[in-house]
Design a protein that fits this description.
With 87 residues, the protein is of the alpha+beta class. 33% of the residues lie in helices and 43% in strands.
Length: 87
């Protein structure tokens, strides 16, 4: 269910009594230049190891989006996980 500060999900385990709440914060980047976007991608640990051709594909997609739409949209998954034990 959306809340004012983002998405919120709560689950309680009947077996353990543990309540876990996830609060997501919607966030995104609008890249208007390719090189800063590639630098941002290179700063993420493991990206080029997991996907060796990822930067080449990202560069091509970013150039096309910037040329046609003026920007390349990058969503970010940001949030907070809160775990509470019932007393």
């Amino acid at each position: 269910m959306p809340s004012r500060s983002g998405w919120r999900t709560a689950r309680r385990s009947s077996r353990t009594g543990l309540r876990v709440t996830v609060r997501r914060y919607p966030d995104a980047l609008e890249a208007t230049q390719v090189e800063p976007l590639l630098a941002y991608a290179r700063s993420m640990a493991g990206l080029t190891v997991a996907h060796p051709d990822g930067l080449v594909r990202l560069q091509a997609a970013a150039r096309a989006a910037i040329r046609t739409r003026g920007a390349f949209h990058v969503t970010k998954d940001v949030g907070l996980v809160i775990a509470q034990v019932a007393t």
